[in-house]
Amino acid sequence: MSRKMIPIFVLLVIGALIVAACGQAAEPPAPAVTPQVQIQVAQAPGFGETLTAVQGRGNIICGVNGQLPGFSFLDPDGNFTGFDADFCRALAAAVFGDASKVEFRPATTQERFTILQTGEIDVLIRNTTWTLVRDSELGLNPTATTFYDGQGIMVPADKGFTTLQDLEGGTICVQKGTTTELNLADVMATEGVSYTPAVFDDVNATYGAYAEGRCDAATSDKSQLVSVAKGLLPDPDNHVVMDVTLSKEPLGPVVRHGDDQWFDIVRWVIFATVAGEEYGVSSANVDEVRDSTENPEVRRMLGLEGDLGLKLGLSNEWAYNVLKLVGNYAEIYDRNLGPDTATFIPRGLNSLYADGGLLYSPPFR
Predict the structure, then answer these.
(1) For 52-168, where are the E strands, in sequence order?
(2) pLDDT value at 36 more than 60
């Protein structure tokens, strides 16, 4: 081969290599594989302590009012009954599969937060209003609203009082250490109405003074006024709740700061009762529904699919136990505050969102 042919041959080889390289570059890259990462959530100190203590003790210590018919009240047989008492039982059903695993601890307005902060009770379910200060400064966590209320004023029917101005110069019975006491002062100052507060420690003392005529009116959440008028006062028809609302009063269970697992458990027990009503699952039909439902949301809630219970630290049947042993929200409400009870309160805002109310459960997924 001549020297003149060598450069041409070399050029041809180099050109072929370049073409081959260009052809390889034109091929689409292989799809990237996304690695499956297990997310580890750092838990704050105190996480899980309450559930561990509750399970070790064998029951839940639930702080209640104890003097409020329809919400928490000791019946003649020595059993606590009422709307709030049933939510204590629902929590026990979720944790133990046994709604009776509750110790009820009556608490006054003055001591209720202290005994929760110090761990004397595991949860406070006692007509307690969700406020910013209670949510932050007191180290407490409201979980979810079980009863939407507003503050009202009850007066003797024969007085003819219809407006706040009618109470000018009067005496108003109110419980010490409540948002009720503060709201009354704010509203009366805004309206320019002078009055004398008669302050008492608990329900019995407050309404005992009112019944004796030592006050011209009594003020509290409207639910409490209705409950007391129908359940404690001797002549219910002789008392009326004025058509005024002094405040918003979202009431519901409260837990301590620092244990998010327990906070989640209490909150989702409430949501389970609401979702139960929404999906038509009750204590009467929950077994039938569990055997036949194809609704993915209901199947997850009842523990048939997924591990939602395990994520809370409970069994996957926790919501099934709540609905089976205590019932859905409508059952709890009707049993204690429904039209066939002495403490009937129309549901109003405490209806499902689909019925014009404010009750709403996040998804079970």
Answers:
(1) 60-64, 67-68, 72-74, 80-81, 102-106, 123-124, 140-142, 147-149, 151-156
(2) no
